Amino acid sequence: MKMKLPAMALSALMIASPVMADLVFPSLSYRTGPYAAGGIPFADGYADYFTLLNERDGGIGGVMTSVPECETAYNTEKGVECYESTKDSGALVYQPLSTGITYQLIPKTTADGIPMHTMGYGRTSAANGKVFSHTFNYPANYWNGASGAINYLLSQGDLSGKKVALVYHNSAYGKEPIRTLEELSKKHGYDLTLIPVDHPGQEQKSQWLQIRREKPDFVIMYGWGVMNQVAVQEAANVRFNMENFIGIWWSGSENDVLPAGDAANGYKAVTFHGVGDDFPVFDDIRKYVVDAGKAAGNGDQVGTVLYNRGLYAAMLAAEAAKTAQEIHGTADITAAMMRDGMEALEITEEKMAALGLPGFGPAFKVSCENHGGPGLVGMTQWDASAKKWTMISEFGPSDMDVIQPLIDEDSMAYAAENKIEAGCN
Amino acid sequence: MPEQLIYAMEVFLNGLMAGVLYALVALGFVLIFKASGIFNYAQGVMALFSALTLVGIMDGQVPFSHIINAVFGTEIHHFGWHVPALLAILLTMAVMVLFAWLVQRYIFKHLVGQEPIILFMATIGLAYFLEGVGDLMWGSEIKKLDVGLPQGINLPIETFTDGIFGYGFFIGNLDLVATAIAILLVAALVIFSQYSKEGRAMRAVADDHQAALSVGVSLNFIWIMVWSVAGFVALVAGIMWGTNSGVQFSLSLIALKALPVLMLGGFTSIPGAIVGGLIIGVGEKLFEFAIGPMVGGATENWFAYVLALIFLVFRPQGLFGEKIIERV
User: What is the mean pLDDT of residues B298-314?
Assistant: First the structure.
């Protein structure tokens, strides 16, 4: 028996360990629970892109990829458990897919030397790479989104004296844009009204009665889950002009507008990536992944907003891995090398076109100082009759004159609190 | 009339309407607790499951299609038909009766005589099981529910109040329908429990299981009937809430809205659920309107519980709950 135990332990270890040659991109997904409708398409898009790389290109740099999924149910504790249970699998980068999980993982991933990518969510000031060495939030963050919404409104006319209401999920996530919108209100002269909605947001009568009474010119929404669908329906109920209702990208998927039917027509949402499936990469996704029966889901999410976001996140991870391979001259990269690749990532229009995603996202370059990218955002609008989102603006700059000082202030406060010496090596 | 007072009247009326919706959810809890002493944690999930089933039947969705396709390599998702809303509601009700039978046959029949906490724990397990089955049967995507209920603002009320106050009140058509249905539902439940043989048997079981058994009342039948009625109430609540938000898994969280109503109205009283719902609905909306802006808003969730707790200080059994007197 004494002889058998080590052998059994070794066998178990071999079974539990991944194939060492695989490039491991763990997916902290949520396919169950109240937010599953948002989690499933993202997870499908993320997994399908890596499957495409494996099937079409033989992986990245000749090394196959693997995407082990761990179910978080959008629960912070489960998310941390998922991280702890997968971090020793050779994980190259984490996408926590939750602001709550992100906040918990920032110190852990930094200590473990594993990079984390929080695209369009998480801690906004993580854009300061001098403080947050292992957290990246390119190409855009919450504050870029808020500024992008205001910039879009400015492009439609002067905001001086106008009333803008922010309807937000009463959580750390929902409160993120408040400071930015307050600063922008001083600059552009609009009156800002803050209207919080408690989780989960199934009941919003008070909030929309307030909007009906106060008649804001524009409503910006930072919602998630059922809050979005109810808000769009209530806006329709109180006959708020959908043209003047703008959601952040987490309030701008098909899920958010379809339940309201025709009443949602004209609703807008900020975005940092393309919409629809009119890109060559989707032909390959169908050919090599969906039609081959290798899709992560049942293949019906291809081209939806959140599927595209997952696919975009996977593409950026894959490109960072390629960059890391080039920098270090090896295909078998580690998490530390991946971090270097993310910090040296450059996305050009030519590269996007070559990947079958021409114009899908903005061109940008990451650096040690700037982990957040340029913060270019665009605007989409819902066409209820065609049941599709359409880009109605180019990817444009957000107001970094306002945002950068906020990033610096918040990140330096974090650095002081955690005794981090800010700087780039 | 001062502008703020007019607005407060509008908020008050909307609070009443919201209260009716809360009461609809609370009713399901009351029915089961009253008849069996079980606090049914799964009531919110029952609303979700029934609404999912309703949409699935209406749209001709093949249940468990993901599993069927994965196992047999098929690509079937829909039967290709669309079932009218009324027929779909009847079929869903049949499913909920089947569900009630299964729950009674395979769970609670084996737990008769157990401590209330054991029964409560069983309903927690049931809730998770039912949520998982709902996911497997019908999928996780958000589904539009349209059984023909009107949405949007009620124009006659808006015009009428505009003529009187110079400000048109917002009253939602869906809320008006929900109120009418809730009134009918409560009236039907009262008539059923007071005047039908089965209803009287239900009340007898609620009063004393042993005594009811001794005069030939079938506990098994009564419990299946009560769970079926609770399933019907859950279906009505699911339709009302699901019409507004789409049918999605967060629908199960509407149970949270029923808890302060139950605390306030009492766990054993149907009128208590209604009055409790109305008090909570009006109270939280008026508080949000008057005090919310001073404290940063979003007061409704916690204020409902504070209000219920204040009532509990003076009436621990709730407004209409039965006073428990234990003699040593």
Answer: 90
Question: What is the torsional sign of CA A401, A403, A405, A411?
Answer: negative
Residues 159-178 on B with a CB inside 8 Å of A are 170, 172
Q: What is the pLDDT of residues B161-197, one digit of tens each?
A: 999 999 999 999 999 999 999 889 988 988 988 899 9
Share of chain A above pLDDT 70, in %: 95
C-alpha distance from A407 to closest chain B C-alpha (Å)? 24
Residues of chain A short of pLDDT 50, as ranges, are: 1-20
Number of Cα atoms under 13 Å in the Cβ half of residue A250: 26
Q: What is residue A17's predicted lDDT score, i.e. its pLDDT?
A: 45
Closest CA in chain A for residue B287: A206
CB proximity list for A106: less than 8 A, separation 6 or greater: A116, A123, A126, A132, A134, A135
Is B183 part of a structural domain of the chain?
yes
ipTM for this prediction: 0.91
The residue in chain A having the minimum alpha-carbon distance to the alpha carbon of residue B143 is A259
Residues facing B295 on adjacent strands: none
Predicted local confidence at residue B328, as pLDDT: 63
Flag whether A72 is in a domain: yes
In a domain, A323, yes or no: yes
Sort strands A388-391 and A378-383 into parallel, antiparallel or unpaired: antiparallel
Whether A250 and A394 share a structural domain: yes
pLDDT band, very low/low/confident/very high, at B271 (cuts 50, 70, 90): confident
B153 CB near a chain A CB, below 8 Å? yes
What is the total count of domains within chain B?
1
The verdict on residue A12 lying in a domain is no
Q: Give A194's contacts in chain B (Cβ within 8 Å).
A: 296-297
- Planar angle of CA A237, A240, A243, nearest 5 degrees: 130
Spatial distance between the Cα atoms of A183 and B187, rounded to a whole number of angstroms: 55
Do residues A124 and A192 both lie within one domain? no
Residue range B105-111: mean pLDDT, rounded = 92
Asked whether the beta carbons of A231 and A210 are under 8 A apart, the reply is no
Residue at token pair 């997916």: A27
Distance CA B313, CA A378 (A): 54
A81 and A164 in one domain?
A: no
pLDDT of residue A350: 97
Asked if residue B211 is part of any domain, the answer here is yes
Residues B40, B28: contact at Cβ < 8 Å? yes
Domain with A335 in it:
20-140+277-372
Task: Output the pLDDT for position A321.
Answer: 98
Parent domain of B14: 3-314
Burial class (CB in 10 A: 0-12, 13-18, 19+), B314: exposed
CATH number of the domain bearing residue A217: 3.40.50.2300
Tell me how close the Cα of A30 comes to any Cα of chain B, in angstroms: 11
Asked if residue A339 and residue A293 are part of one domain, the reply reads yes
Instruction: Give the per-residue pLDDT at B140.
Output: 87
Instruction: Say yes or no: A190 and A233 in one domain.
Output: yes
For residue range A95-144, what is the model confidence (pLDDT) as tens digits? 999 999 999 999 999 999 999 999 999 999 999 999 999 999 999 999 99
Domain count, chain A: 2
Are β-strands A346-347 and A378-383 bridged in parallel, bridged antiparallel, or unpaired?
Answer: unpaired
If asked whether residues A178 and A239 sit together in one domain, one would say yes
Residues of B in contact with A172 (CB under 8 A): none
Q: Could you give the CA distance from residue A40 to residue A51 in angstroms, rounded to a whole number?
A: 16
